[in-house]
Automatic annotation (TrEMBL):
Name assigned to this protein: Uncharacterized protein
Alphabetically ordered keywords of this record: Membrane, Transmembrane, Transmembrane helix
Phylogenetic lineage: Bacteria, Bacillati, Bacillota, Bacilli, Bacillales
Membrane is among the record's keywords: yes
Residue ranges of the TM segments: 61-80, 86-103
């Protein structure tokens, strides 16, 4: 029997663009997304971010363009036959240089984006190879029972490589750990394309500690595989927890109402009261059907409860 471990994950830095996680090795030209790890290709630590690498290339381009411009201006100055033509040439040179600097500043952001696109297009095979090496490094950690370290690596890889295999490896690691509310957990990013018992086991643990992670896509997954899930030892408890989670928003309730109807008796009083308030006054559709079911359940469970009776009086 495997003993689950209590761990604390390293903070996962939020970035505006996932490609910002890439690090480029100046020594051998390989890529990685693993922070504080030596290069898998050459063992060095001479990494720069993709933005820094793009900035270096842009700086080289700037110097090249400046030399070419200076050469043309020098030729123009040498071709001058008197001081008047020399003055005109120097004035023209000043105007051209000023215009060049202004245009460089104006298009700086666009130029950086263009350079980054070119780098990623040209280096895509190297980037893909680096991500796969990072995943293999995580696989070695898993073999050596270092599931926390493996998951942290796979989390970085999965930010760019969103394939089923990486998702499955992350789920396998998470199922070896004790899931707590204070952990930085993910759920929607792990949704598999098909029924996956390992994912459902993890989802069950999450549903017990952090129901806020259960959103529309997860509810849809539960609806799609409901029959198979309910056959699991913890399946009905999972569906009940999901029913509670769906009460946060009306769209969730409308989508998940068949499960809410079947698991209404398992709702805690405070969640049942919230459901009653949300469906009170509905005249058609799923909410109206839920309203009728809530009225009937209220009579049986809370027939003389003033809090429940007050809701229907307000309606």
């Amino acid at each position: 029997m495997n003993i689950k471990r209590a761990v604390q994950f390293r903070k996962h830095i939020k970035l505006s663009h996932q490609w910002q996680r890439l690090r480029y090795c100046r020594a051998c030209g390989s890529y990685t997304v693993l922070p504080e790890e030596p290069c898998s290709g050459c063992g060095s630590q001479s990494f720069v971010t993709l933005q820094e690498y793009a900035a270096t290339l842009n700086k080289r381009l700037f110097y090249t363009e400046a030399l070419v411009l200076a050469a043309f201006l020098g030729v123009a100055a040498l071709a001058a036959r008197d001081f008047l033509e020399l003055g005109i040439a120097l004035l023209g040179a000043a105007v051209v240089i000023a215009l060049y600097v202004v245009l460089k500043k104006h298009f700086r952001t666009s130029e950086e984006i263009f350079r980054l696109q070119k780098i990623t297009e040209r280096h895509m095979p190297s980037i893909r190879e680096g991500l796969l090496k990072d995943a293999l490094s995580a696989g070695e950690d898993m073999k050596n029972d270092r599931h926390k370290e493996a998951y942290e690596k796979l989390r970085e890889v999965g930010s760019l490589l969103t394939i089923e295999h990486i998702k499955n490896l992350k789920i396998m690691c998470l199922n070896q750990l004790i899931i707590r509310k204070d952990m930085e957990l993910e759920l929607e990013t792990l949704l598999p394309a098909a029924y996956n018992k390992e994912f459902i086991t993890y989802l069950y643990e999450v549903s017990k500690v952090n129901k806020s992670l259960i959103r529309q896509s997860v509810l849809d997954y539960l609806l799609t595989h409901r029959l198979r899930i309910e056959q699991l030892p913890f399946g009905k408890e999972l569906m009940s927890n999901a029913a509670v989670a769906s009460l946060r928003m009306r769209p969730y309730i409308e989508r998940f109402y068949p499960v809410i109807l079947d698991y209404m008796d398992s709702l805690p009083k405070e969640r049942f009261l919230r459901l009653c308030k949300l469906v009170n006054g509905a005249t058609s559709g799923p909410l109206a059907r839920l309203q009728q079911a809530c009225r009937e359940a209220a009579k049986v469970r809370y027939g003389f409860d003033p809090d429940v009776q007050a809701i229907w009086q307000e309606g």
